[in-house]
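Researcher: Next sequence.
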Amino acid sequence: MPKPYIICHMVTSIDGKVTGEFLSRAECEAATDVYYELNSEYNRNGANGFICGRVTMESSFTGGWYPDLTEYPLIESKDDFIPDNLSGFYAVSFDPKGKLGWKSNKIIDEDPGYNNAQIIEVLTEQADGRYLGYLQAMEIPYIFAGETEIDVHIATAKLYSLTDISSLLLEGGSIVNGYFERAGVIDELSLVVAPIVADAEDKPLFMASSVSDFELKEIKQYNSSVIWLNYKRK
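Model: Next structure:
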């Protein structure tokens, strides 16, 4: 099925972890700066959105807020909700049960690389019908991509066919990255390696991964401690 071009773009530790306290250490600041620099470059060169899982979206943007769903109508239909005039730069949220609370239909963030991105919720049929009513009231588009678990192939095919999305940055965390890796839909890896070894409890690039082959296309050293590794699917 046709799908957007998917680039997994992440900061990693030397031992391949992508979430944990190491990200807040001063030794990781240079790697984070390179990450955002490359993020902007990818966006200038055609990426027209980013994908994150529920946990990442909550920690980065919603802060755990959730609406009072009793204020919204019950929507029983499992039809996708895509406004006719949908266009622009997108924040694609993989939120299987509909647990994210948004106060706007676009991202509000100080970082210009994320601010004003149009939110799209990717759900399963387990999402509460009143949550669907809330999303419609907020004019937040949503698509269904599975009954109890998100099917990445369905999700990416719908994102391609129902919107103008042609390329997306997959920006974690481990669980949603793992969904995409196991589905075999990641076309490119963009890994900014920080000079840090993470804790054993920190999460890897892909949770529950499967074997897949990539080729190293470029390696670049940005300063005395940060390197960028760029792989394409073999």
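Model: Residues 94 and 122 are 5 Å apart (CA to CA). The chain has a mean pLDDT of 95.
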